[in-house]
Amino acid sequence: MAPPCGAGTGAVNGKVAVSQKAVNWKDRSRRHSGSGRSHAIVLAMRYVIVIAAITFFLFWDGLYNHGHYLDVTVREVSHIVRYVTG
What's the domain count of the chain? Predict the structure, then answer.
């Protein structure tokens, strides 16, 4: 004869005890919240890196090229906008 469902696992009448479910839920939420926070930090650092790179380029262009690349970029974007809007 087979043992009842959940026998030997801390189950009562085939059901897991409420305290065991609470402990498992706490363990799972702690793991996920930590990885969620680290994921948010990684995304924030990507924005910081992009903003720092653009700032560096603008300073470099202004100091060494007298804004040549920025001027060319603005002119091309304005041409594209005029072409698209008619």
Answer: 1
